[in-house]
Specification:
Blueprint (H helix, E strand, L loop, with lengths): L1 H23 L3 H5 L21 E3 L5 E3 L7 E7 L8 H12 L4 E7 L11 H12 L18 H10 L11 E4 L5 E5 L8 H12 L4
Length: about 210
């Protein structure tokens, strides 16, 4: 009788061991049954594209030249410590006198020439407002010449040729109602000059495309 009990116990232990072994070697498919699938990782964000028409604003926000389609835009690279800095006053006068006609002026501070715009955005804003009462849109500080120039300036050169590349502060580029650069003016051409005034008048009189 004892031998029979011993045999039965041995068989039971062996069967239990086999069951544990089978459980330990269950397939991955069986192990994952009943579990919720992991959510897919979020898609990677595309790198932002730089547009010839898009500038960061001096104190935040954006200046998008495409928003001015149907108007005439004068883009001027500016500096606070230049012999031409007094043109800020003329640009403000021009802006106020022809804004209703459809003229927009955009200032683009740059430290490219003689290091004459070393200040921070806040310092540039304060200087322009206190000394010249500037109210026209001002972009953030940018490089305006060479391979590192803002895409707007590289685009202007492709359209107008090398004359469109600024040689000094207060170089001016005129954009027509269709958003294309149509003329450029050297730093010495003042905001009140007949040359610039006539070009603006022609551009304002042109039919929008």
């Amino acid at each position: 009788m004892k031998k029979q009990v011993l045999v039965i116990s041995t068989v039971a232990v062996a069967l239990g061991a086999l069951a544990l072994a089978a459980a330990g070697h269950s397939s991955p498919q069986a192990a994952t049954q009943g579990q919720k699938p992991k959510p897919a990782p979020p898609p990677m964000k595309a790198a932002p594209m730089t547009s010839p028409e898009l500038f960061d604003g001096l104190m935040g926000g954006k200046i998008n030249l495409s928003d001015y389609r149907g108007k005439v835009v004068l883009v001027v690279n500016t500096a606070s410590q230049c012999g031409y800095t007094g043109q800020y006053a003329g640009l403000e006068t021009l802006w106020k006198s022809r804004q209703r006609d459809g003229l927009v002026i955009v200032g683009v501070p740059s430290n490219d020439f003689g290091g004459q715009e070393p200040g921070s955005a806040a310092e540039i804003k304060k200087f322009c407002e206190l000394n010249y009462g500037v109210t026209f849109p001002m972009a953030a500080k940018y490089t305006v010449r060479g391979t590192g120039a803002h895409p707007f300036y590289r685009h202007a050169i492709r359209v107008l040729g090398e004359k469109a590349e600024p040689k000094w502060n207060f170089h001016k580029i005129l954009i027509g109602k269709d958003g294309r650069p149509i003329a450029s003016f050297a730093s010495s051409v003042t905001p009140q000059s007949a040359e610039l005034g006539e070009a603006i008048t022609r551009a304002l009189s042109a039919t929008s495309k």
